[in-house]
Amino acid sequence: MNLSLIIGWVLSFALVVFGIVFDMEKGLVFDNAMLFIEVQSLAITVGGTIGCLIASFPMSYLKQVPKRLMLAIKPKKFDPTKYISQIVDYAQVARTRGLLALEESANQSSDPFMKSSLMLIVDANDPEKVRGMLDDTIMFMCERHEQGRAFFEKGVSIFPAFGMLGTLIGLINMLGGLDLNDPNGMSNLTGGMATALITTFYGSLFSNVLFAPVGMALKNSHDDELLCMQIVEEGVLAIAGGSNPRYIQEKLEFMLPKNQHSADKK
Questions:
Q1: Cα 124 from Cα 237, distance rounded (Å)
Q2: Is 4 exposed, middle or buried (CB count within 10 Å of its CB: 0-12, 13-18, 19+)?
Q3: Cβ of 51: how many Cβ atoms within 10 Å?
Q4: What is the DSSP string of 154-203?
Q5: How large is the average pLDDT for residues 100-122?
Q6: What is the chain written as a DSSP string?
Q7: For residue 203, how many other CB atoms are within 10 A of its CB?
Q8: What is the pLDDT of residue 264?
Q9: pLDDT of 238 over the 90 cut
Q10: Which site from 93, 94, 136, 255 is most exposed, i.e. has the minimal number of CB atoms within 10 Å?
Q11: What is the per-residue pLDDT for 212?
């Protein structure tokens, strides 16, 4: 479970609501919350954004959006130190028993990329060809993940745009119905202005509190997976080159922050 995402959502909405209902002199004034509930503004901002997002992506893509949302809330775990430990173990097997002995280890691996990488060197493929195939696999993964985030990243830009559109609609309606001879004209003007600005509030709220964190959570998960795949690639190629397990460990740990190096944990 992505606790930081959940805590951030709860904290953001709680503080926004607190800012709406809190008054320095009167304390909590829950009647103020009613000023921020506007069905027409929600229809323009939320409905317009959803409609635009549906129009921007094929149905086959839209069916996967709930799955990607759940992936942001409950991301897969990628521990680069465990990958390094596994690579070092495989290097020791290859050094003592030969590359062919890695086939059994590869079949026991639960990571598809690790398994396929090991099998490539077991089959005695040229290291440069192996690197090219692994680079292509990583590149395609990056493209898929980028496309997966596109829905939420586009929502970040569309929500404020529809918020501004709703504000313009509200201002046009307000000014169109303004009667300068009406003694209550100024009151109607200020009330209409408040209603028009609510759409901007909705656009900014949903964009920055909902869609932006989901997109960033998916990006963080992608970065974790990418790092582990790069560790596998460099480790497997080092094994194919006959490198010492200790050398491989130190080489791969250079890809991690210094506080994650095994020497710093002792």
A1: 11
A2: exposed
A3: 12
A4: HHHHHHHHHHHHHHHHHHHHHHHT--TT-TTHHHHHHHHHHHHHHHHHHH
A5: 88
A6: --HHHHHHHHHHHHHHHHHHHEETTTEE-GGGGGGG--HHHHIIIIIHHHHHHHHHS-HHHHTTHHHHHHHHHSPPP--HHHHHHHHHHHHHHHHHH-GGGHHHHHHH-S-HHHHHHHHHHHTT--HHHHHHHHHHHHHHHHHHHHHHHHHHHHHHHHHHHHHHHHHHHHHHHHHHT--TT-TTHHHHHHHHHHHHHHHHHHHHHIIIIIIHHHHHHHHHHHHHHHHHHHHHHHHHHHHHTT--HHHHHHHHHTTS-GGGSHHHH-
A7: 26
A8: 52
A9: yes
A10: 136
A11: 95
Instruction: Report residue 80 as tokens.
Output: 């680069």
Name residue, tokens 């491989």. 248
Distance CA 2, CA 180 (A): 55
Backbone angles phi, psi at 75, to 5 degrees: -75, 160
- What is the Cα Rg of the chain in Å? 27
Q: Give residue 184's pLDDT.
A: 57
| Backbone phi, psi, residue 69, to 5° | -65, -45
The token duo for 159 is 């929500």
